[in-house]
Structures are given as C-alpha cells and as structure tokens.
Description:
Number of strands: 6
Structural class: alpha+beta
CATH class: Mainly Beta
Radius of gyration: 13 Å
Largest sheet: 6 strands, antiparallel, barrel
Order of helices and strands: EEEEEEH
CATH topology: Thrombin, subunit H
Amino acid sequence: xxxxxxxxxxxxxxxxxxxxxxxxxxxxxxxxxxxxxxxxxxxxxxxxxxxxxxxxxxxxxxxxxxxxxxxxxxxxxxxxxxxxxxxxxxxxxxxxxxxxxxxxxxxxx
Length: 109
C-alpha cells in the first residue's frame, strides 16, 4: 500500500549534502515535496539530520532544505524526509518538480 503523501518524480539533480561539518556532492534521483532519494558517498544512518542543497541548472541560488532527516540507507543510496520547509523553498521545489514532470511527459510524447 502506498504511504507517500506527495507525488514523487524521477530526475537527476546535482546536490550538496551537509552532515555535521562535512559537505559532500551527491545526486538526487527521486524528488517530492516531502523528501528525496539521494545517491552519495556520504556515510549516513537513519535518524541523522542533514542539510540538502539542490543545485538547479541555470539558477545561481540552490534550493536549501535545512531540516531533513535520513529515513533509510542502502549502500550509497538513502532517503531523506523534509521538515519545516520555508514557503519560498517549497515554492521553488514545487516548480522544480513541475519541470521534471513536464520533461517526463515530453519524453513520452
């Protein structure tokens, strides 16, 4: 049974991840308003707080999710859940998701 509250889209978005004082590159491969699936060499465990910066091509300012928490991890892939996302970042995240949906629909046509 599906438990997700938000539509999840596939897409490859370059991502910077910060846990403690380490900042590491990664790639977001699944994205929704409530969280993401990320591939990275960052060593994380479920429950760990993390900052996620989504780097949008052509945009100088990343979408910064300051309150995210690791939900699961398998090898170099892990899921994060977003908490208390400010309205501006939420709006930008929604626009990015809509763009991913439009790209997917364009490929299918």
